Amino acid sequence: MNTFSQLLHTLLGIGTEPRALTFLQVSIRGVIVFIATLIMMRLGSKRSLAEKTAFDAVLIVIIGSMLARAINGSEAFFPTLGAGFVLVFLHRLFGVAAYYSHAFGILVKGRPVVLVQDGSLRRKNMFWEHISKHDLEEDMRLDANTEDLSKIQVARLERSGDISFIKANNVRQQAR
Q1: Is the pTM of this model over 0.70?
Q2: Domains of the chain by range and CATH?
């Protein structure tokens, strides 16, 4: 066991100053971190990779930053890998808690905000969410295939940051 431990320390450069790590040591660290990260992502939620909410994006940013330090040697290798697994577990735990508690879900994932109601802009909501009329019009053209605000029954800024559009039904439009 002592020989294996010494071999591992040598191959990974454990205890070596980051500047003294060799190409081979950094490469082996990179391969191990790559495989460990794949395992982390498989253990975690598929949604986290889609970065649907700030809750998901935060995990990806922190994991990436933290694991980069394990590769370049600026942080301890195995404790950093372990902390990555802990964060993935915590993200999953928060996701389960959000499933069972709508209030907790709002806390960690946010809530959708109405930007348009029955063809009328909700300017106060747009102001607080930093969505200009031009931003909304661009998304209307791209996603709702219209430039006519009166054709939009509801537009919401979703928790993911996307704007969703529900068009007014044709019967109501013809009655106008």
Answers
A1: yes
A2: 2-107 (no CATH), 112-170 (3.30.240.20)
